[in-house]
Amino acid sequence: MLPLEGLKVLDLSRVLAGPYTTMSLADLGADVLKIEHPERGDDTRHWGPPFAGGESAYFLSVNRNKRSIGVDLKTEEGLERVRRLAEGADVVIENWKRGALEGMGLGYETLKGDNPGLVYCSITGFGPGPDEDRPGYDFLVQARAGIMGITGFPEPDGGPTKVGVAIADIVCGLHAATAILAALKRRTETGEGCRIEVPLFESTLSWLANRGQEFLVSGEDKGRLGNGHPTIVPYQTFDASDKQIALAVGNDAQFGRLCEIMGLPDLADDERYATNPDRVANREELVALLQERFSERTSDEWVEKVRGAGVPCGPVNALADVFQDEHVLGSGMLQKVEHPAAGMLRMLASPVLVDGERLPVRRPPPTLGEHSGLEGWE
Q1: Which residues are known to be catalytic?
Q2: Whole-angstrom distance, CA of residue 124 vs CA of residue 122
Q3: Residue whose C-alpha is closest to residue 177's, from 350, 368, 348
Q4: Which domain holds residue 147?
């Protein structure tokens, strides 16, 4: 039995943050009904190429283990159907413009009248404040919340860049899933539901983590460090003779072992590099010395040698390398599922294991309105 089996989630969200939230709940066993416009569907169904059986890879990536119902919310019949489904739901999640669903009779205050235990989650662009009515978009949020300001290489050779996936949406979705589960836990004790709001901007702001706190403590903005780390050295990529490797030296003992296997034992005792604060202060000189030695061998040779010394090290993989990685292939993260339009699909599964078992892909991402014949929850 999956942990959330029997939980009913009515999904009025679209694009990424909301669907990522509901997919996380569906992976854990929740029954997720995705409400879509009967003709257009979720915007991401059209975000391609690539497509598989007419379904965009983007849509497929965040909608496994759900069912889809086509409903026109511009009709009273459609609105009434959603209200009936909400009466039997444990959770409703939405990411509409602030106030839009209230005007349609689908806001929390209306729905809780017939379902006082309802947990209602709204994903917004910005929380209460001066910009609360502004929409949120990952790219703009990454820029404004400072993520782009600390991501990329310093000028003149580089500049700010976004993270390669829409991390603002992903982290917002994870916060939303956590908050929903917390609200459900409280409901078991009080019998009462609640309305949760999880803003995209504030979620991303919280993702600044140590970089944000470092600025609040010191007032210093270390800016963009490429693949380096602001407070740990060496903790970055290096160029081997064929391609880059990633090295993550987490303590002084690891640094000593690294120096030994690289044939540079004196560096570990050098007062400029003996401790991590020393290495941070003398970053450029140390990195240059290590880079010179790393360029003498291939990435495979260095990865094997450095790992053998108990120092974290790995290849910098392109996606083609990722999906041939022996751990990826042996972890159960890649699963196959039969899709009604696309045929057999390989998909990434949930990273979560329960009692040692990988959570399964129980259902393929649904085709538009595939389950519209449902009269209610089953």
Answers
A1: 169
A2: 6
A3: 350
A4: 8-207+330-358
